[in-house]
Amino acid sequence: MHRLLQGALGLIDAGLLAILGSVSDKGLPTVRITGAGALLSGQRLVSALENLGLSPSGLSKGTLVVAKGNCPVAGAPLVLVHDPAEGFVLDATLPFTWTGEALPRLPSANGAVAWVRLPENPRSGVFKRRLQRLGWEVVLFEPETSLAAAFDRLNHEQPSLLLAHARRPSLDADVVDWLRLPVAADVPRVLAVPLGHPALEQLDSGYRLQALPFSPHDLAVLTAAQEPNFDLTSLPVPLADEAGGRRLLIVDDNPVNQAVMGAMAEAMGYAVSQADDGQQAIEACLQAPPSAVLMDVNMPVMNGIEATRHIRALQRSGQLAPFPILGASADATPDNAHACLTAGMDTFIAKPLMIAEVAAQLRRLSPDAPKSAMW
Asked: Cys-Cys link to 54, which of 69, 228, 276, 361 (CB 3.0-4.6 A)?
């Protein structure tokens, strides 16, 4: 899915992408990605098609292009119809079949009321339906009227869940006030923010912090609180755990630094892999993508900045799944920090590293980061 999305993004400079998943009449999962806007043309289009493993039937200027091939990662048959004047449709039939295993039983909220404050946009309806499928009675509150409307509603209704989405880097006071509504003490208060939001660095904020988007596992765990005897171990494991658990790749040419940072990583619950330079780091990521990378800047063979550029290019082309890169250097000058962020690192941390700061940045940037502290 990541490669298909990156491939579709590579066909368009600006505009709109829409993604629809369904099941074919043969029971195979299918994905259709449509795009409209400023589409690529000429040699740039040829390169984008090559990244997807597609062979076009013709590339005359201004003409309809039909291209077919197979995804280099999943082997999925792909068909692209590209009209420079209208848009494109990219269809994929994923070669995965149902194993015949019974689906696990999900917990049910059994009609419990969830109050949800989130921006008014198409995503609001989607999120509401996801909660309703788990048995929640959902009440949506618009940001402009949420506090006043909530206080009025408290006179005749008590929610079993308070949940708010916040996307701005700084939390608005009304979001915090809404999460502090005078409801029962055992009601979960959940603040959902995008990965990278500063709020995710906190451990004790008075409400539960959740990185967007919610996975099916996240919503099931949240709902299970309404069914006290539900066995959470019966749920499928999160994708990160299924793929091998948390693993931090430490890239540093100094063996002492490797040992110290490795001990930090293990204390935070990560498995550790190591690389001595940027080139080794790229090879390690291609062999087994990590949960996150802790990247030294100044190294022989290939430095951390150049390695980061290569890794981000591989991710843009869909050859690598996304993961955060944390830059680390004893050279804590503004110019060095700026160079790291410009190259594509997600954050910059000055050496010597403090475990609390590394953990806070991992919580902010990684969906499977440690959620508690032991130090």
From this structure: 69
